[in-house]
Write a structure and sequence with these properties.
heterodimer; A: mainly alpha; Serine Threonine Protein Phosphatase 5, Tetratricopeptide repeat; 3 domains; 21 helices; B: alpha/beta; Kinesin; 10-stranded mixed β-sheet; 24% strand; TPR-like_helical_dom_sf (chain A)
Amino acid sequence: AAAAGGGWAAVCDKFRTARTLSTVESRKDPETEPYRSKYSARALLQEVKQLLSAAEEGGEARLLAVRRAVLEYELGVNHTDTEELSAGEEHLQRCTQLLEPHRLSPDCVSLYIQAQNNLGILWSLRDEIKTAQTYLESAEALYNQYMKEDGNPPLDPSEHFMAEEEKITDQERSKRFEKAYTHTLYYLAQVYQHLEMIEKAAQYCHTTLKRQLEYCGYNPVEWALNAATLSQYYLSKQCFMEARHCLAAASVIFSQAGQVPSAEDNETEQDQQDLRQRRAEIARCWIKYCLNLLQSARKLLEDNIGELDPDRQLELKAQRKKEEDEKEKGRKKAVLFGTSDICDSVLAIEEKVSSVYPLDFQEAREIFLVGQNYVLEAKEFFQVDGYVTDHIEIVQDHSALFKVLAFFEEDYERRCKMHKRRLDMLESIYVDLNPQYYLLISRQLQFELADTYYEMMDLKIAIGNRLEELDSHTIKKINSLAQLAIKYYELFLDSLRNPDRVFPEQLEEDVLRPAMVAKFHIARLYGKLITSDSKKQLENMQTSLEYYMFLVDYCEKYPDAVRAVETELELSKEMVGLLPTRMERLRAKLCPFI
Amino acid sequence: PSVSQVALRIRPMSAAELAEGARPIAHRVDEQVVVLRDPMEDPDDILRASRSREKSYVFDVAFDSSATQETVYRATTRGLVAGVVSGHNATVFAYGPTGCGKTYTMLGTDSEPGVCAHTLGELFQAIEDTSGDTEYEVSMSYLEIYNEMIRDLLNPSLGCLQLREDAGGTVQVAGITKISAISAEEVSQRAPMGHGGGPANPPLPGAARLPQVLQVLARGNRQRTQEPTVTNCTSSRSHAVLQVTVRQRRRGRGLRRGRLFMIDLAGSERAAQTQNHGQRMKEGAHINRSLLALGNCIKALSHRASTKYINYRDSKLTRLLKDSLGGNSHTVMIAHISPASTAFEESRSTLTYAHRAKSIRAT
């Protein structure tokens, strides 16, 4: 028999008032009394508790127990919210005890899981993260077991204090139940992160995102940014398929935003600005995706002098054929952001760019073009005026895209053209940059410019060597490129001097290798300069020798530096041995009578 | 940064706290140990007695209301002075929530001068003692970093200043007033207008000049940006940085430069990061209930090891201290808490943070 009609309605009312106080009114509490509403709620809950224990026991034992459990839950959360953790813990424990024998049944499972969620939160507040983990994992297991064994939408805990006609639909029940479980997963993501189980944390973040789309309601811009950020994590793990999926979903969901027209004008302007910026940021994530994919492929394909190894290429192509179908499907299913309406759109974007390593020029070029498009898109917002650092980073990425594409290009002349594009874009931003304000970026650009000139020079020499002899035009070109490379390496080295223009005795760790490489390359460049004037040639060799000596001497003085420049050091030592002899011979030719 | 020492200072209960009915829950147990007790408010709660609600924290040195300014100075900062005079860098931080005594520790009052005053006094004395064959030049600047903007507290009308990094990698504030702290007549005449840098020293009785210097500092401190502490607006923070540079030129030995930063950090109390509906954010291993914070969780996943170039450009404060944040500089952190039960959450946060700082050593 139901409890006395009018009395029960009053009890439900009290309960509902308490909940409203806790969740709605409490937001308006003043700074000086932040828990005022919660204390009032607590008093009401205590009253309901009293009324329940006064009620008849008997056939309704189970129902009574569940209702009591709901109260213990609410009190537990209330105490936790007001920072009274020990009391909170007690109430929550009592709740789970009452529900224990029936925890897998539809009237109890949701409440049990929520109680465990809150116990997890509580223990995290005590800095006992492992204990939190056990509660949350237990909640997770219970959900899975329930879905497997029963699966019907369970009662929402609030229904235990509702009249029959107020009970909610199955659809709503399911929604709330899934939301509770989403929180379980989200809390677990945080826990795993604190325990430094990063891969698991990422997996749970991913699942949370997925479920937000399906059950929870979401803000499209935020969701898109989160998904794009997650893609960067996947990139760091070389999981390109997952990264691409996140980015494609981000792009699709993002386009859902900005479709709601806003009434007020000034709000719209700032909002529009924000939207454009977010869109550009997502574009930058895509650039990183393309760049990473190309660079990772390069690492797999290059031989020990940095050129494309055709044998490796064949090997990888054969391997790809085999692996393609099986593995991918399994992984894909696990990470699919699966709501049907966005599925097709996401797929459409995914099909525009590959997620497997490009193994030849054609494949690389396609990825390059996608990346280049995103560069243009990002630059539209991140213009030099106002976003210097961002703009420069995008240009650097663009240059990197060309650099890695050149690796796949077989024809040397075409490679040169790509490097020329790099030089143009880097020089145009370098020339306006104040090296005092932008020291770090300045150095990066100097070094990259020098390296690019160096590379181009090497290519011109290689092209020239295929002909019978070098014509004067080519020689001029080679020398000019070499001089420019030297110029920029010297600029870089100059930037390391202290205010008294003295080159540091000992180099700091973050500039050690680039400085040594710069010296080494300059040495080599002086060796490559072509001149018919023997005296000039001697001078060049002397300069070359001095730079090689610098490396050798520095590494003797600071042996810790050796591991940063092993290869270069070996070659330097050889040259230091060879050059003096060559110079002697040349001198002998010039002055045969001395 | 390499933290050489972490100290903790508990201030006395304030009149306001006593009026509220707060009880003391933080105690200094011995020279190094501080105990914090979790206050219980629930009257129903009889079963709690069995479990201890106390947590203890060990620091390099701990102080409570029985410690004088001089004691605090001696135990923490005094040891840094000799190093600065001979060309090393050092930093002293005052950390903690608003109202827990950071400014009192650093600046102090006329009758109870703080760390800055004692340090300057000691500096002048040390210089006087060795100024035989050595020339010294001491200069100081007092600036505020507020919302990533830098203001000269000795000449606030200059507005917002820029950081400049010279080719050697030293970070300076362009255009800031430098006072030559030796020649104090110039201090009283020139400040706050002056662009400092008086002639290198004649030997002088440091104590006589000190009061003027301190007056200048006190004036500068009143120029700090005030704002009512409201916990639910986006964080606005004012750090005050006193920078003292000592240049030493020994005959035949070249030039050495030591820099000492004394920093009164902005309040460490947590500001709500989102419209958090009255629920306060807690740091550390605590689980954030709101799904709105999923983004932070995801961002933290990609936190990778440093790239080829070490990124010093995180914030203005870090940039200014770049020199000091290397492996061979000394850093002292003085954390501050209130003993009141009403400040439990913040005290616990501060203690946890300071406690973790102890385990950071030079990499």
